[in-house]
Specification:
The complex is a heterodimer.
Chain A: H1 11-30, H2 38-47, H3 60-95, H4 107-121, H5 131-152, H6 160-184, H7 189-196, H8 206-224, H9 226-232, H10 236-241, H11 246-268, H12 274-286, H13 290-314, H14 323-341
Chain B: E1 3-14, E2 17-28, E3 32-36, H1 43-50, E4 57-62, E5 65-66, H2 72-76, E6 79-82, H3 94-99, H4 114-126, H5 142-155, E7 160-164, H6 172-189, E8 192-196, H7 200-206, E9 209-214, E10 217-222, H8 224-227, H9 230-237, E11 241-245, E12 251-255, H10 261-272, H11 280-284
Parallel strand pairs in B: 3-8, 3-9, 6-7, 7-8
Antiparallel strand pairs in B: 1-2, 1-4, 4-5, 9-10, 11-12
Classes of the chains: A mainly alpha, B alpha/beta.
Chain lengths: 347, 286
């Protein structure tokens, strides 16, 4: 009898991925008008650990750049990239659609409408959390809630396709409202589009701390469902015959992925293609099992967005490209490649 | 003999159409029952009811427990299904596909145990699939794929096996191979088997008993020699056939062209040339 070797996450794949992330993060933190050397960065981080005291060698200005500007930005980029890539993989598994992305069910349109409302009618206030963040998050959740309401109002023939079509309808509806508002408030156009194209500009740790609980929750729930997503790959009826309730799995995984996406979109704007590029690259290199795709998507998604952000802030320095432009520059050709490679789109 | 599966007064209405109309049947433990009937008779729907993957009125029990009262995981622990058109995940290897059969035996959070891997290895060996373990399921031929799908069902280690048209699309050699395989493993594992089948000869050759469905109703139930008569087949399939019993107690169903003028002409010509007139018996047993 043969020894059965099923698909699984090899420890050294994770080790390599973490090493890549560490290198990318170190380069991104160190590169800028004021360079910071890797050893100093390492010493400075170790110095912040409890019961440890190490001289980083950085002066006050360098330390401020590290802890208030570069590190929060890189950590934020990592969290946003990890969440978008994980959510993309989760959506693709839930809907058996290789081209599904985290914005499939109205997250982007809802967040866009929320952000437009905030920019047009609720300028920065003295609230501890900016209205833009709150409304973008609420809009994203509201968009998905509307999609589920519309999708599940179908009594007969309720399938994942119904839900996707409901998402298309809701996105079109919310985008129409957003466009109407932009026509009325032309002065906000530049600011709204700036948000839509995505940015990771941040000072301090507010955004990181805001999204961290959502990111952790999303990762925990989606990773817990990874082996069930493998079962869903044989279709709803066969999955049910194998003892899995596909609608229940889909609901839990998609909701978790959606909350994570809504949280990161609220702080970063609409950064496209990460949710498609990263999981697909991992599928091609490491295999199609979600037991492998999802954990590696977290690590490589973080690394990918950190690299894109580095490019965005250095390519036209001292100016800055919207990060969504950089991800789309890599993403659009890759999207076409995935289309060519996909023999069919599952339902 | 006790009943492994019991279907009582089951009706299914989908999209306003009655697919099954008050169907009742029982399947004895350890028997192989063939489900026959013309297209749209409701064969697949019966299987879907027993697997509890389609809503129905009535009662389906497995080992005296109603499937409606069971969780999907519990039903999957009792009934394994070999679908007619299995969905093949792109990039999935045979070993991972067969391992899906162990899903009912472990929780959502736990991965496959050493026991699960042992069961999969044993099933691959039993079905002579070891050489295919690392092949992607989308690259297999029809016969190979059918064995792999059966392997997944066997990995579920259920007492009841449901097969939906297990020989569809296979050449005659592969058809025989698959049916002999099912017969062997059901005897080895004392399985109760219900298979929907289109090929009446194969159904008559391999099963212990036949159920004939037509227009969503059960219209005949019995041994192949009782169910597969020219009259019954003409009534429910609209087909003209000859039915011949073979030496092994099975039956052979031979389609006959209803317009046989061309045969008459050919025979007349042959008789005129002095050629012997072969009987049907001689054609079957030359």
């Amino acid at each position: 009898m043969i020894t059965v070797a099923p698909a699984r996450l090899e420890w050294w794949w994770m080790a390599v991925a973490l090493a890549v992330l560490a290198i990318v993060a170190t380069v991104a933190i160190g590169y800028g008008v004021v360079p910071l050397d890797a050893a100093g960065i390492g010493r400075s981080i170790v110095d912040r650990l409890p019961f440890v005291e190490v001289d980083s060698g950085f002066d006050e200005r360098q330390a401020a750049i590290l802890w208030s500007i570069r590190l929060p930005r890189v950590v934020l980029g990592g969290l946003v990239g990890a969440t978008l890539a994980l959510a993309g993989g989760a959506y693709q598994g839930s809907f058996r659609n290789p081209l599904a992305d985290p914005y499939l069910l109205g997250v982007a349109a809802g967040a866009g409408l929320g952000a437009t409302l905030a920019i047009a009618y609720l300028p920065a206030s003295s609230l501890p959390i900016s209205p833009l963040l709150m409304l973008a998050f609420a809009g994203a959740i509201g968009g998905v809630a509307l999609t589920y309401l519309a999708g599940y109002s179908v009594k007969a023939g309720r399938t994942s396709v119904t839900l996707i079509l409901a998402g298309v309808a809701v996105a079109a509806f919310l985008t129409a409202i957003q466009t109407y508002l932009l026509q009325r408030e032309v002065a906000t156009l530049r600011q709204v589009y700036g948000w839509i194209l995505g940015r990771l500009a941040t000072v301090g740790w507010t955004e990181v701390l805001l999204i961290l609980p959502w990111v952790i929750l999303t990762a925990a729930v989606v990773l817990a469902g990874r082996s069930r997503l493998d079962v869903l790959s044989v279709g709803d009826e066969e999955a049910k015959a194998l003892g899995v309730d596909p609608q229940r799995v889909r609901l839990i995984v998609v909701l978790a992925a959606t909350f994570g996406t809504a949280a990161v979109v609220a702080v970063s704007g609409l950064i496209g293609f990460v949710g498609i590029i990263v999981p697909h690259t991992i599928r091609i290199v490491f295999g199609t099992s979600y037991k492998v795709v999802l954990p590696l998507s977290i690590i490589y998604g973080a690394a990918f967005l950190i690299v894109c952000d580095l490019i965005a802030r250095t390519l036209v320095s001292p100016g800055e490209l919207p990060i969504g432009v950089v991800t789309a520059f890599f993403g659009a050709p890759f999207f076409a490649f995935v289309l060519r490679r996909s023999r069919g789109v599952g339902t | 003999m006790s009943s492994a599966v019991s279907v009582a007064d089951v009706s299914v209405i989908l999209g306003g159409s009655t697919i099954l109309d008050d169907v009742s049947l029982t399947i004895d433990t350890g028997s192989w029952v063939g489900l026959i009937g013309p297209n749209g008779a409701g064969k697949t729907t019966i299987l879907r009811c027993i697997g509890n993957v389609v809503p129905f009125d009535g009662t389906v029990t497995i080992d005296d427990t109603s499937v409606a009262d069971m969780k999907p995981q519990d039903v999957a622990g009792l009934v394994a299904v070999v679908p007619q058109h299995p969905v093949l995940p792109e990039g999935m290897r045979v070993v991972d596909y067969v391992l899906l059969g162990r899903t009912p035996h472990h929780g959502a959070m736990t991965s496959a145990s050493a026991h699960d891997l042992g069961v999969v290895a044993a099933v691959l060996a039993a079905l002579d699939l070891e050489a295919f373990a690392d092949r992607e399921v989308t690259t297999l031929s029809g016969g190979e794929l059918q064995r792999v799908v059966i392997a997944r069902a066997l990995a579920q280690e259920t007492p009841v096996l449901l097969l939906d048209e297990p020989t569809t699309g296979l050449d005659i050699g592969s058809q025989q191979e698959v049916m002999e395989l099912i017969d062997r493993i059901r005897n080895e594992r004392e399985l109760t088997v219900l298979s929907a089948m289109h090929d009446l000869t194969i159904a008559g050759q391999f099963t212990d008993r036949l159920l004939l469905l037509a227009d969503g109703r059960l219209v005949a139930d019995g041994l192949a020699t009782d169910v597969l008569t020219p009259e019954t087949i003409r009534t429910h399939y609209g087909a003209e056939v000859n039915v011949v019993e073979d030496d092994g107690g099975g039956v052979v169903v031979i389609p006959v062209r209803s317009s046989a003028d061309h045969l008459s002409d050919d025979r007349s010509d042959a008789e005129a040339d002095g050629a012997p007139n072969e009987t049907d018996e001689e054609i079957l047993h030359p």
